[in-house]
Design a protein that fits this description.
This protein is an alpha/beta fold. It contains 15 helices and 16 strands. The strands form four sheets. A seven-stranded mixed sheet has the order 4-3-5-6-8-10-14.
Length: 406
């Protein structure tokens, strides 16, 4: 179910495509006011918990270089591996608890050919969850699986482990998905900052940290204990491009309540869509690889695309065709960086398209027709995500009626 799409700024151009694909859809509802749930699950297994547990000791075995991984078992939740985002059509895969090398290898081996791994996790954020994410990410790196999705459903867990897991994901290119019917509450919210892309369909909520094993006998003593945790959360959010206001909420909202974040707040705090910090880093890398002129031309192309193509009437094919016709005006496909050029996912043979684009500039021939963007068999189901060849993910809402007209 791979749909060729633009290597564009995640939030703006995906919205443009969806608007064009379903032009007759009703306008989006107004953003609801902030909501507060009357209760929160603050059992030992959930909530936002902080403890005095020391950071994990440096292991002797480097799991990136050996198959002799230390024995480990997943006990805080259930995990399964799938090689497609389509959980409606294919399910979530078989569950596993053994986090040994060959157990993880066997679970992920079918994903090598598809180039996509979706880790479905339901449960508490804890040390074994952090180990699960690290080991699946490491195995994906070994197998050359570039598209990694954490499909999570969690009511919270330990703050310190959420920070460790988030930093691990930040270094290994994960998309984090809270799908319909799932939740991401309390400590789980911190995980969102670690993803390259965040796709949110289920509710996201936060509340005050619960300090376990506290020796405080006064508010002042408790505040002093929580201050260190608060500083740790702020530093984590800052280095991953998320708003530090999230840490403030986790100090003020009563822990028996739950502050549900609105869509606007998720955007404002940098917890949904494309990660701004990762986007800046990718842009810096693109300048190094292709030059500043390339990036400026790319920016100009996408501004023109949004203005001229996002309102094109018709299906995805028409939008893609508009973009393909627009590319030569901005020097794309680029001779040096054809694979990084806009709409490169539509090019079966980027080198040949460079030559065709050069000829099109001279008025010799027309650009070759684009590959179909989607077929009826590829029609996305409700609440699925679509991955492109640029390792970008996006949420695809229900639009069966629009797809039927394609």
């Amino acid at each position: 179910m791979r749909l060729p799409l633009l290597r564009a700024t995640f939030a703006v151009l995906v919205a443009s495509l969806l608007a064009a694909c379903a032009a007759d859809a009703p306008p989006p509802p107004k953003t609801p006011a902030p909501q507060t749930s009357g209760s929160a699950d603050n059992s030992a297994d959930f909530g936002a918990v902080s403890v005095d547990a020391p950071a994990p000791k440096k292991r002797k075995a480097d799991i990136a270089r050996t198959t002799e991984w230390p024995d480990a078992t997943l006990e805080s939740g259930t995990a399964s591996i799938s090689c497609t985002p389509d959980y409606v059509g294919t399910g979530d895969g078989a569950t596993f608890t053994d986090l040994g090398f060959f157990s993880v290898l066997d679970a992920m081996l079918p994903c090598k050919d598809s180039g996509v791994v979706r880790l479905r996790y339901r449960g508490r954020v804890a040390g074994d969850f952090t180990m699960l994410v690290e080991r699946v990410g490491n195995m994906a790196q070994r197998m050359g699986i570039k598209q990694r999705i954490l499909d999570i459903d969690s009511s919270g867990g330990q703050v310190e482990d959420a920070i460790r897991a988030g930093d691990i994901m930040a270094e290994s290119r994960w998309t984090i998905w809270v799908r319909e019917g799932a939740v991401c509450h309390s400590a789980c919210v911190l995980l969102l900052a670690g993803g390259d892309d965040r796709l949110i369909s289920g509710p996201v909520g936060i509340h005050r940290i619960i300090r376990i094993q506290s020796k405080a006998t006064s508010r002042a003593e408790l505040s002093a204990e929580l201050h260190e945790v608060h500083d740790s959360m702020k530093a984590y959010l800052e280095r991953n491009g998320a708003g530090v206001a999230v840490a403030d909420f986790m100090m003020t909202v009563p822990n028996r309540s739950l502050r549900l974040l609105t869509n606007d707040e998720l955007v404002e705090y940098g917890l949904t869509g494309r990660n701004a910090a990762q986007e800046d880093l990718d842009r810096i890398r693109l300048v190094r690889r292709c030059g500043l002129d390339f990036v400026r031309r790319e920016d100009a192309f996408y501004r023109a695309f949004e203005h001229q193509c996002s309102s094109v009437e018709g299906n995805v094919d028409a939008i893609n065709a508009c973009g393909l016709a627009l590319r030569p005006q901005y020097g794309f496909p680029d001779e040096k960086c054809a694979a990084d050029s806009p709409l490169a996912a539509l090019d079966a043979k980027p080198v040949e398209r460079v030559e065709a684009a050069q000829q099109a500039k001279q008025g010799e021939v027309a650009l070759p027709a684009a590959k179909p963007a989607a077929t009826r068999a590829d029609k996305p189901r409700k609440d699925t995500i679509v991955l492109d060849d640029a390792n970008t993910a996006r949420k695809e809402p229900a639009r069966e009626d629009a797809a039927e007209r394609q």
